[in-house]
Design brief:
mainly alpha, 13 helices, globular
């Protein structure tokens, strides 16, 4: 669990752009209830906090449905239209799309900060300690899965990347699997650094929640929370931040290679996926 308490709200709608879900509409319509349940499990909210959170999630959901989903649908239809004929993809083009996605997340984060601020002001020391315990448990699980057995972690990383591409393209060709394997072989394991980054982000969030008790208004708390969300676009671990741009470019180049090796069947599969999501967003926005 990587800061899911707040990040899942920030990515409430945008996350379905990259998540495999058998029913986007069902998942989206039930997102407020799921988020309420998860946040309650992390913090053990009292009755008043549950009512407050439900109200804020309802308002946030209504805004996102009306203002953001139509934009997502339009963007996906534009991307799908570019697949009508075979074309050459470039890393630069894919980086621009990555920036579009990140901007959408930042827009959602800004609004979610405003909606979460009233709840943040009410959190108690006991609830913060419960959240810390949840983080500790999550970090132990991360270490076990990614640090204690490097060979297993390497295999899982290959499988994870393959599944992400297959979700959009369908079954990968032998050539594409080789492209992916060769690329991963050039990428050193950053599991230790990512583990450190998790902890640093958790510390920053816990400090924000601890300081919130002294903030005068929810508006001030919203600014602090917004700044925290904005900070997630960069890394607190120096080594990760230094190589951030190079890694994004490398991933964009990998994706361009995968897309440029698409079969006609895969191109149709990708186009259908984009159009299906667009239709879901249009239906949800209505």
């Amino acid at each position: 669990m990587q800061l899911r308490l707040l990040l899942r709200l920030a990515a409430l709608g945008s996350v379905v752009l990259i998540a495999a879900c058998s029913s986007v509409q069902l998942a989206y319509n039930n997102a407020p209830l799921l988020l309420q349940y998860q946040m309650d499990s992390y913090l053990d909210l009292n009755d008043e906090q549950e009512v407050l959170l439900a109200q804020e999630l309802k308002s946030f959901h209504a805004w996102h449905r009306q203002d953001e989903l139509p934009v997502y649908a339009q963007t996906l239809r534009q991307w799908a239209a570019k697949l009508d004929e075979p074309r050459v993809f470039t890393a630069t083009e894919l980086l621009e799309k990555q920036q579009q996605f990140e901007q959408a997340l930042l827009t959602v984060a800004e609004r979610s900060a405003y909606r979460l601020a009233p709840l943040v002001l009410t959190l108690t020391e006991r609830q913060r300690e419960r959240l810390q315990a949840t983080f500790d448990k999550s970090n132990a699980e991360y270490a076990k899965e990614n640090l204690d057995n490097p060979e297993s972690a390497s295999r899982e990383r290959l499988e994870r990347f393959g599944e992400r591409y297959e979700d959009w393209l369908g079954s990968l060709t032998k050539e594409q699997r080789q492209i992916l394997s060769r690329w991963l072989a050039t990428q050193p394991s950053r599991a230790q650094l990512w583990g450190q980054e998790r902890i640093e982000r958790q510390k920053a969030l816990l400090q924000l929640l601890a300081d919130a008790k002294d903030l005068p208004t929810a508006e001030v708390a919203a600014v602090e929370l917004h700044d925290y969300f904005q900070s997630l676009s960069r890394y607190r671990v120096t080594d990760l931040q230094v190589e951030r741009e190079a890694r994004l470019l490398s991933i964009a180049e990998l994706t361009a290679n995968m897309l440029n090796s698409m079969t006609n069947e895969q191109r149709r599969h990708l186009q259908e996926r984009l159009l299906t999501y667009a239709a879901d967003f249009e239906a949800l926005s209505r």
